[in-house]
Amino acid sequence: MSIITNLKLNHYQAHQLPDSCANASHYLTVDGNFVVSRTAAGEVVSRYQDDSWNMKMYSAQGICVYNFVSWAEDSKSSPLITVIAEEMKRIQLARMYLFPVPRKPNSIGTTELNRLARLALNNNMSLIQLFEEANINRLLLPSFAELGQYQMRSMLILIKEAFDLRIMHPDFGFAPPSYAIIKRMQDMYDKHPKLQKDDPQQTKLIPSRLYAETIAALNAELDAFNSNGEAIVGLYRRRKENPKFGLPVTHARDYKDSIAWRDAVAQNGLGSFFEKLSITNWIQLGGYLGEIQQAAKYWIHLFSGMRENEARHLPADTYTTISAGGAIISILRGYTSKIAGQNHTETFWVTAPIVEKGVIAARTAGQIAALLFEHDESDLSQYPLFAARKKCGAPHQAFKGAPVTRMASKEQLYRIKSRWPGLVVQEADIRELEQFDGFRDWRNDPDVKVGQVWPLATHQCRRSLAVYSARSGMVSVGSLGLQFKHLTEVMASYYRRGSAFATNFLQSEESQRWLDELEYERRKAQFIGYEANVINSTSRLWGGEGHRIQVSRDKGKPLIITTDRAFTLKKFGRGEMVYKPSPLGGCTNLGPCDKISFTSIFVCLDCDKSLLDEDRSLKNIKRGVNNLKRGQSLFVPENPQYKQIESEISAIYEKLENRGLLEKMEAIT
Fold this sequence. Notes:
α8 crosses α12, α12 (282-302) crosses α15 and α17 (458-472) packs across α20 (509-535). The strands form 5 sheets. A 4-stranded antiparallel beta sheet has the order 10-13-12-11. Strands 7-8-9 form a 3-stranded antiparallel beta sheet. A two-stranded antiparallel sheet has the order 1-2. It has 4 domains: 2-190, no CATH class; 208-433, no CATH class; 434-518, no CATH class; 522-667, no CATH class. By secondary structure, it is of the alpha+beta class. The chain contains 25 helices and 13 strands. This is Integrase.
């Protein structure tokens, strides 16, 4: 009973659970009234006898539906379709309840099951007949051989799963009768070249130039829309009042009380704006509103680090501010990615005030959707920020007021990016990516080519925010550096233990993963600094840790941490090594420093954790000594303060003299 176990593990209420059987074998023979899904309130949504099982309330993304007739062009044209649909239900119920380990409903897709159903129907047989050995050899194996690599892999997973179910439950006959057939299918699949185990699959980092260009382009896009948003709402309101408002010129001539499109646009002061965007009719304007919704959503991704599903399910009243420590903090209230019934857990994201322009744009588009399709905006907490421009669907959708818009299509993103010439990849962007991740073959990445538009995706915004925040302490990109600085500083303060908001913010597993990403990037940034300033340094190292490394090099037996980059990166990743900037160079202390103070920054000279070099560190020391001398000049030689500073300078000179570095330091200009 894996689906029930899975739902209980995810804290669903008992009245929200589907039906269950006392004996596992009973799931192979349930009657038509068996309840497959319920709402959070316990109301029945789908029964076994239904042609479609709605599982949205058990899906993290709220998009899981099993349809057992959509694969057939005409579900009423043949009695065989009814037979196959019934077989598909038996297979799907067994996959849901009889699988040995718990799994989520949306991981049990029906795409490959639909392929089998079409194959059986086209050959005038049922699924149980299709799995007879003769028909497997005559029909299934040749069809399997024609599939693409990824389709073949998915089908093989389904067939193996069905075979396992047949072994555990002999009455389940929807699988090959012997494993030899699966072995033949595996051999076919193995002929396809596979990705190597260590091939990088991580989300692409947006290069810094393209990151800035994206922010600037979105900023201009949203500003332009928001400047005309009220007029566009007015345009739609007048059309709602008069269906003949804004007709094409050829149609407007047929009605006395009609207003042609160009006149309608001019009356609302939108002529030049629409002309720039080449919007000449209602269909194009509707497409533009969809593009603005996606632009607003990307803006929120950039300034919050949210995932796709979390941003799509923000409520219309998401943006607010709170007061903390005398400062006004901007936040976005929303929910964890599990959008369903009692699993709809509130949380919030710290953000920057500039995110509000994206919220305003999305709200304007949402107002138009409500106007056109009579959505209920009376309670903004129950109205989505990204409302779909269509009629309300089933009552168990995430928000009562309106359905949520779909994910962006490739065509929609293409139209948006075509207006942003700055997103074209340049050679410098490729070189930056190679410096960031030298193990990835960027030159042969089919998605990243010089002269082509960068393949922007929502999760890139999250990763890029984590990388640039963790690596710089504040993200200074273009004119928005101050907002980013505010964002990262506030986030850092909220993450500290003891914060009044820490329990609320970190209660979700998603928030913890976000922190883990920031921490990973922080450690990787330290490794990059260590690699540049220690491993690749041509300057002689000194200081406590620097001396240890340099002595080993001089003996011809360098330490493994300076020769094996992969080994050293792992140590940084596990937190076993650190490389932090210090006033004079670098520090390898795993814990906080208890030696440096405002009045004593030269303690690094004697510390066994210090990692200094003869170039950067000596420049810092020279600068510090000059500062001491300027402070000393404020006193007469007889003053005790003058003598104290003199003793500090002398101590520094003595330490440098002992290391043979005094003369080199003095020579620095």
